[in-house]
Design brief:
Layout lengths: L1 H19 L1 E3 L5 E3 L3 H22 L1 H31 L17 H8 L1 H32 L6 H9 L6 H11 L6 H8 L16 H26 L3 H9 L4 H9 L4 H16 L2 H8 L10 H11 L3 H28 L4
Helix pairs in contact: 3-15, 4-15, 5-9, 5-12, 6-9, 7-13, 9-12, 10-11, 12-15, 14-15
Subcellular location: Cell membrane
Organism: Halorubrum trueperi
Keywords: Cell membrane, Membrane, Transmembrane, Transmembrane helix, Transport
């Protein structure tokens, strides 16, 4: 009995001495009371060390030397130039002397809204974007379905259809200027050869056919690109879906319309964005065909921008046209990038 009492007293003494060495913090964590400052400092050092280790091992810092310098160059020479162009559009600068940055205004944009040539160029640009994009997608899809039928000379057809895209706008314009020539062009010669002389036209001189001729030539050049994009999408669809639809009694047309084409939505979106960008950059094609004055029936914003800025030496007005063109590009690419981000593909 005395030994049990002595053991209990000894245990209480040990617990009380241990309790004096430990202090409970406000948040409930227990730390050593003998050296609280040293404990907190060591904890902070450990936290800093772990943070440094995480930063050192992060992919962001590892990849920074690779994308950092190019990113700075793009930021300065691309977005910096766009920002400076926007500031120039708020001045009345005509290219002589120094721009007056003290009195910025939106007068150039007000003049644009009242300019009939801008209205015509803006309308033609919209028609070119939508009609050219839609026709190229349709033709590209039909070509992709044709090539997807496991034909023997598939690679040959694919090369032939894709070859026009490898040509520059300048080469394409020279080629089609000969095709559209009213006197000895291939189109009119073929029409005369089959006895359809009444259908021969001055394709790139008549205001009624100028824009349609441009759209047809650009569609010829870029429908092969759409074919390649759609062909990749078709090859990604499992063959079992075709077989299941045919077992259900669906016709070939219904299989493509109800089963296949809805699954090509991503291919359609990506191809459409690229086509719109190329349509906005069609300045080279029109410049070779018509020069700086294609007329209101075929004028587009990129040609108007060049004509105003470099032919008439009205840089502020040309910068305003350029900003409208930039806004149109952002209006197309921005929603696409947002959808890609929402899908987790960016």
């Amino acid at each position: 009995m005395p030994s049990r009492i002595f053991a209990a007293l000894t245990r209480d003494t040990d617990e009380s001495s241990t309790g004096q060495q430990r202090v409970r913090t406000d948040g409930g964590a227990v730390v050593d009371g003998t050296d609280g400052a040293d404990g907190s400092s060591s904890s902070a050092e450990t936290s800093d060390a772990s943070l440094f280790t995480r930063l050192r091992r992060s992919r962001f810092l590892e990849s920074l030397p690779f994308w950092g310098p190019p990113g700075l160059l793009v930021l300065f020479f691309v977005y910096g130039a766009i920002s400076w162009n926007f500031v120039i559009s708020l001045t009345g600068w005509e290219g002589l002397g120094q721009p007056d940055y003290s009195s910025l205004s939106t007068d150039m944009y007000t003049q644009l809204l009242a300019d009939p040539s801008f209205a015509a160029a803006f309308r033609n640009t919209l028609v070119l974007l939508f009609v050219f994009t839609a026709l190229s997608l349709v033709v590209g899809l039909l070509l992709a379905i044709l090539v997807d039928q496991k034909i023997r000379v598939e690679n040959t057809f694919r090369t032939i259809y894709l070859l026009p895209m490898s040509l520059s706008f300048v080469v394409t314009a020279i080629f089609w200027s000969w095709m559209y020539n009213p006197s000895n062009g291939l189109i009119n010669e073929v029409l005369r050869g089959v006895g359809l002389d009444a259908l021969t036209q001055a394709w790139i001189s008549d205001p009624r056919f100028k824009l349609a001729s441009i759209i047809f030539a650009l569609m010829w050049q870029f429908s092969g690109y759409c074919m390649v994009v759609y062909l990749a999408g078709l090859r990604a669809i499992p063959e079992s879906q075709y077989e299941a639809a045919r077992i259900d009694g669906a016709s070939t047309l219904r299989v493509y319309w109800r089963v296949i084409i809805p699954q090509l939505r991503a291919s359609t979106m990506s191809a459409a964005v690229v086509l719109v960008v190329f349509a906005l950059k069609a300045f080279d094609f029109l410049f070779v065909l018509f020069g700086v004055n294609p007329g209101q029936s075929a004028d587009i914003l990129s040609v108007m921008m060049y004509r105003v800025a470099f032919d008439r030496i009205q840089w502020a007005y040309g910068s305003a046209v350029a900003m409208v063109l930039f806004a149109m590009a952002i209006g197309v690419i921005g929603p696409y990038l947002y959808l890609q981000y929402r899908r987790g593909e960016l």
